[in-house]
Amino acid sequence: ENTPPLAVPEHSVESFTRSFLRELNYGRGVDLDRASANDKYFALSRAVRHYLTTRWLETLRNQHRDQAKTVAYLSAEFLLGPQLENALLAADLEDIARDALANLGEDIEELRAVEVEPGLGNGGLGRLAACFIDSLATLNVPSVGYGIRYEYGIFKQTFVDGKQVEKPDHWLHLGSPWELPHPEYSVPVWFGGHTEEATNSAEGARTWVPSWHVTAKPYNYMVPGYRNGRVNTLRLWSARARHDFDLREFNAGEYTEAVRARTFAENISKVLYPEDSTPQGKELRLQQQYFFVAASLRDFLDHVLPEDYDLHNLPNRITWQLNDTHPVIAVPELMRILVDEKGWDWADAWAVTQKVFAYTCHTLLPEALEVWPVELLGRLLPRHLEIIYRINEEFLEEVREAFPGDELRVRRMSIIAEEPGRAVRMAHLATVAGFKVNGVAELHSELLKDKVLNDFAEMWPDKFTNVTNGVTPRRFVRLANPGLSELITAGIGDGWITDLEQLRNLEPLADDPEFRRAFRDIKGANKHRLAQVLKDRDGIELAGDGMVDAMVKRLHEYKRQSLKLLHIVSLYEGIKSGRIPLESVTPRTFVFGAKAAPGYVRAKETIELINAIGRTINADASLEGRLKVAFPPNYNVTLAEMLIPAADLSEQISLAGKEASGTGNMKFALNGALTIGTDDGANVEIRKLVGDDHFFLFGMSEPEASDLQAEGYDPGAYYESDPQLKAALNLIGSGHFTGGDRDGAAGSIFASLTQRDRFMALADFRSYMDAQERVESAYADYESWSRSAILNIARSGFFSSDRSIQDYLDRIWGAKPIDQNH
Ligand code: 26V
């Protein structure tokens, strides 16, 4: 029971060297002369892990002893990014490890490059989950992340003839030193079958007789707080075929068939779905969702809670935070456990269930709201469908009582949609069951109440709240931008790393010419580093000493990469036609990073067009290298950490009312880029904080955009009335960039913008061009630009994910950070 805690190894180069060599010899079975880069990377990672393990065990022991209120973050995605650098930072081993390796003749940077980042997420939602668990640990909150250990993460993007080609991301190929499997905590997850009359007498109970199951095997990952002695756990589930399958069930001679059948079960955690909108209603995806949720509930109830725990107290012990609707099947699962398995009456079970789930919505696009066909859900999870029906029945009764005679409202609010086919609306289920519903930026939360979930907000106004997103300053400033971090620390001390509002103290330094010069030097060095990496990796050349203008995010029509292209083409066309004198153009590199969902045709065409335009512009000697387009393939966390610190200008140009929050916008501001953006998502809050003088606002506001939509939007009118817009579009449509081809990507994008333009890029074009002119003249005074950049940093402390987590604690969870020494 009371094993004394292992001592943390001594913080010294000697001790670290011993750990490293021991891991190399005993862990990998090689000596230094014969070790591969992977061997050394493993030994290094394992040595670092030793320094955190004692803390991890302590945290787990305290958590078990205290039985404190816990936050379980349920998320189908955790886009973690490289682990080694973060562990080195948290354990305060950066210098020691570098020196230890140098003494052995090894370069730590070379070993870091071996790491394949775990890309277990699509974009914003998955990266947010990773920032949040970092902040939960740093704020000392008892918490656990639950998700899926995909064998293949987000695909690796390559370009072939400028077209996106996806390659599988077998990130576990060489093994991962960061995970610890715990097969002894495996749990079965059942599917299919039918339901029968209950064997217990609880009101509302039935018995589920499922027909097949898989085993969910947990892998634990350390989530270290920033130098605070806490190490939380991220538990990711891997699907295994039931280990005890009985060969007598198969006829003689079917041995190989039986073994082969295992792969069916193991498919469940095989691959991350790379779509992040327009749900496909794929059966395997629903299997994934139920798989990780059922395993996580079971894990918490059976392994975390004491054996005799009275589940009536559950709301004091846990909040299950639902990261979008992906885990919402947890709601009927908990009801099933309480009613069918534990024998509670329905009403008692519902009372508890309604107090333990909270729901975060991450979108505004109606097509991104998940719905599951009743037929599919009923086939895979027949008992859960029955439970959802009953929840809906009672809920609709409540609606009828609150709004007598309003059957239209009842139909709108129903958890079950009738058209086009019967389907379960997961956002409605989450909103009915959750005790809180939050949006991810102020504007988004308002639009949820006023539009997307308006009926629900009228019924339960107090259920709705906002928590504006944030990003972890450890990874996105301290690790990504060491130069800037040192400068900040020299100016105001290092408290900002865990208390980002302290960046305010930089404000006076924005007026200090020495400080500004130092800032510019760092920005320049970061650009150099980026230029070097892009050259080595992809053979890309940047515009020498110019502005770095970055648009990095998933490729989506609503994010309007096409509007960015219209700006680039218009500049190019202006220069070529003599309208714009070349000398007047600020040298600038337009950097794109974007993956398209493999089935999203227009997004893929946009990628092709970006590459085509880039190829033409980059090869045009008459531009004297003043304009460049750099589109490095496979934008991921690793590349983000390289790119964001080098940027001068951050492009956040979605149509107002479409981007829930954005988090890249925050990362750029914190690294001293100025934003050109619409009044959308968290841009609104960034602009309010940094001030209009240090932000380039353009475009319609959300009400203006929705009015224009309602009036009937005609992109053709904009095309006809703005000669520069017309010239840019015509140049694209003419095949100028596509080797004369007018039919492929160029023709398709031309037609879609001029005929439909769902996200009104043409309507915002003129205002965007004007804002870009303001950017050019501001940049011409780089002294004053750098002052604005520093003020952006100083005023963006609000966007720490530590602040987001504090808001979740105050507004939703009611959990308290733990005093470590108690
Ligand atoms: C949605 C869906 C829809 C069903 C099909 C599968 C699937 C997979 C992932 C997603 C997530 C898309 C939603 C998302 O990533 N939203 C982004 O969340 C960020 C964090 O809150 C926010 O900053 C971005 O504005 C928002 O687009």
TrEMBL record:
<comment type="function">
    <text>Allosteric enzyme that catalyzes the rate-limiting step in glycogen catabolism, the phosphorolytic cleavage of glycogen to produce glucose-1-phosphate, and plays a central role in maintaining cellular and organismal glucose homeostasis.</text>
</comment>
<dbReference type="InterPro" id="IPR000811">
    <property type="entry name" value="Glyco_trans_35"/>
</dbReference>
<keyword id="KW-0808">Transferase</keyword>
<comment type="similarity">
    <text>Belongs to the glycogen phosphorylase family.</text>
</comment>
<protein>
    <recommendedName>
        <fullName>Alpha-1,4 glucan phosphorylase</fullName>
        <ecNumber>2.4.1.1</ecNumber>
    </recommendedName>
</protein>
<dbReference type="InterPro" id="IPR035090">
    <property type="entry name" value="Pyridoxal_P_attach_site"/>
</dbReference>
<dbReference type="Pfam" id="PF00343">
    <property type="entry name" value="Phosphorylase"/>
</dbReference>
<comment type="function">
    <text>Phosphorylase is an important allosteric enzyme in carbohydrate metabolism. Enzymes from different sources differ in their regulatory mechanisms and in their natural substrates. However, all known phosphorylases share catalytic and structural properties.</text>
</comment>
<keyword id="KW-0663">Pyridoxal phosphate</keyword>
<keyword id="KW-0119">Carbohydrate metabolism</keyword>
<keyword id="KW-0328">Glycosyltransferase</keyword>
<dbReference type="InterPro" id="IPR011833">
    <property type="entry name" value="Glycg_phsphrylas"/>
</dbReference>
<dbReference type="GO" id="GO:0004645">
    <property type="term" value="F:1,4-alpha-oligoglucan phosphorylase activity"/>
</dbReference>
